[in-house]
Recover the amino acids of this structure.
């Protein structure tokens, strides 16, 4: 229905044919019987009295209903409002106020009609409709079933340089450059997200056919979705980025859910490990601070996770802090958090610190023995009562957490020389658990080595390799200053260079020893390695240097044979320089024999 503006006389009453001509579509010339039956017009004067009626408004009872609804709508400042006829038929009324008169256009609707429900439920329905007509991203261009423009939003008129109403009554192709609205009307198929070039500017648009309640196409509308394809590309890039991040966090969440940090993750059935597990089981349910001591690589982090998982706090978070890595300038913000705007670069909403994040859960301080002195003082205050303040804030906050600390340092010596506070030690060391070194649990080496081979194979999608008895005995004869961590890395390295399905002693190369105790390239137990490789009997007079030379010679001979004299690969596999390899080949009499080998 098109409402054609009409001038109202300052006096007198509009004739019914004038009202109906205002309701007619310009192309039809007259209204049909059905139009009279479904629509009506009621014109009110400045005094609020009826000046003219037509259509369904000719019925006095219907006119009274429309007037009653109008008085309520005017009080609520509504220009589109619902009403009902005396027999309960729903009506939607549009009010068109003029200087000295008001035109009320009424339309009968179905009781479940979407427009009737929308107008009846929303007081500001007219404002929403106005938004869709004027907003640049929802503004409409409307054509009828003949492709004639019936309405164009003001923003579109300005874009095409048209005066208000300048496109109305003209074919879409005459008004809108490269328009396809008439094709959409003809085909009845929507076109969404297509590029439309208008006045040398590309837009992303959508076109939709409009159907009446009988399913007949009555027109089409066109809208701008994006002002240019660049916006769509940017949106697509942002969406791809978000999808990638979601996939990453899903994998991380899956790993966290599937990762077990309980006692099952602490491998070993040696007496030392059985004693450790018993201590963890007894200690975990008690809400006391725990200090884990022992050499580097003994699994202190796994023990901390096991204590947390077996404690009443298992459903809350275990927050990890590397005390040695805390920068002195940011230690307060990292531990206690900060309020918004506390310093340059601070997040707008502020941020929780590690201590606040651990509220209700556990706080794991790794390498606590390496904590700077000023950090020790600040931590001590929190451990006393759990109270703290964020950086830049005045509010006193509280965090209820269980402290689990770990260190490989000698606290007695540190306390004696003043590098660690005695009062802090008493706070963190309520109960101390010593993690056994790998030398104290050599029975577990075979199980740990098999685990390393299995994990390596899973990561690289290979068949797991086996560990020979000789290789197992070789590993058990090492000192392992790096403990389990060093063992796992050593076994993985052997799996890389092993040419068969079974790992043998020669695949391990020379295992680095503790530099604090032994010379470079010397491994404790080198004599045992020499015996394993040469079959010689142990001798009390065997010198360390001779044992190392025997091990090197056997490893070089086996690698040269296995790699067919490729010196470059031999040097890479053994972890030595080619110049040193050439020197050793000459010493053992293989230099001339391999002179034609690959270098």
């Amino acid at each position: 229905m098109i409402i054609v503006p009409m001038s109202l006389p300052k006096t007198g009453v509009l004739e019914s044919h004038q009202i109906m001509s205002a309701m007619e579509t310009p192309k039809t010339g007259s209204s049909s019987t059905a139009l009279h039956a479904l629509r009506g017009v009621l014109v009110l004067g400045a005094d609020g009295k009826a000046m003219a009626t037509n259509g369904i408004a000719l019925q006095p009872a219907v006119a009274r209903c429309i007037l009653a609804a109008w008085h309520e709508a005017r009080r609520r400042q509504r220009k589109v409002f619902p009403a009902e006829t005396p027999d309960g038929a729903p009506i939607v009324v549009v009010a068109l106020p003029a200087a000295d008169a008001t035109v009320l256009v009424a339309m009968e609707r179905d009781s479940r009609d979407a427009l009737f429900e929308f107008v009846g439920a929303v007081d500001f329905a007219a404002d929403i409709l106005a938004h869709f007509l004027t907003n640049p991203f929802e503004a409409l261009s409307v054509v009828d079933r003949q492709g004639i423009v019936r309405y164009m939003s003001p923003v579109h008129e300005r874009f095409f340089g048209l005066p208000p109403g300048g496109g109305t009554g003209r074919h879409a192709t005459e008004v809108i450059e490269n328009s396809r609205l008439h094709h959409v009307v003809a085909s009845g198929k929507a076109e969404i997200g297509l590029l439309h070039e208008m006045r040398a500017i590309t837009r992303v648009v959508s076109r939709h056919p409009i159907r009446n309640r009988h399913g007949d196409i009555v027109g089409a509308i066109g809208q701008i979705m994006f002002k240019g394809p660049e916006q769509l590309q940017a949106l697509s890039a942002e969406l791809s980025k978000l999808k990638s991040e979601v996939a990453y966090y899903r994998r991380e969440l899956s790993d966290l859910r599937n990762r077990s940090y309980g006692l099952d993750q602490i491998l070993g059935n040696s007496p030392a490990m059985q004693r450790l597990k018993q201590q963890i089981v007894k200690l975990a349910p008690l809400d006391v601070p725990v200090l884990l001591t022992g050499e580097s690589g003994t699994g202190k982090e796994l023990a901390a996770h096991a204590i947390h998982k077996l404690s009443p706090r298992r459903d809350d978070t275990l927050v990890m802090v590397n005390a040695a890595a805390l920068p002195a300038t940011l230690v307060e913000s990292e531990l206690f958090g900060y309020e918004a705007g506390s310093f340059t670069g601070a997040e707008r909403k502020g941020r929780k610190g590690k201590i606040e994040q651990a509220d209700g859960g556990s706080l794991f301080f790794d390498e606590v023995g390496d904590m700077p002195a000023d950090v020790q003082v600040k931590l001590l205050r929190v451990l006393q009562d759990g109270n703290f303040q964020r950086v830049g804030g005045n509010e006193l906050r509280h965090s209820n957490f269980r402290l689990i600390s770990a260190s490989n340092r000698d606290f007695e010596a540190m306390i004696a020389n003043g590098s660690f506070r005695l009062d802090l030690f008493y706070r963190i060391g309520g109960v101390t658990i010593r993690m056994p070194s790998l030398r104290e649990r050599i029975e577990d080496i075979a199980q740990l080595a098999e685990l390393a081979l299995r994990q390596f194979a899973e990561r690289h999608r290979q068949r797991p390799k086996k560990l020979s008895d000789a290789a197992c005995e070789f590993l058990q004869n090492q000192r392992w200053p790096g403990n389990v961590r060093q063992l796992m890395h050593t076994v993985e390295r052997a799996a890389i260079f092993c040419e068969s399905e079974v790992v043998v002693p020669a695949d391990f190369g020379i295992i680095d020893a503790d530099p604090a105790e032994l010379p470079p390239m010397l491994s404790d137990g080198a004599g045992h390695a020499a015996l394993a490789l040469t079959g010689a009997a142990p001798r009390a007079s065997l010198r360390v240097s001779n044992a190392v030379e025997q091990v090197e010679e056997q490893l070089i001979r086996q690698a040269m044979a296995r790699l067919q004299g490729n010196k470059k690969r031999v040097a890479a596999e053994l972890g030595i320089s080619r110049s040193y390899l050439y020197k050793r080949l000459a010493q053992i009499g293989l230099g001339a024999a391999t002179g034609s080998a690959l270098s």
In short: The domain at 438-508 is CATH 1.10.8.60 (Helicase, Ruva Protein; domain 3). Residues 1-37, 513-543, 592-599 have pLDDT under 50 and may be disordered.
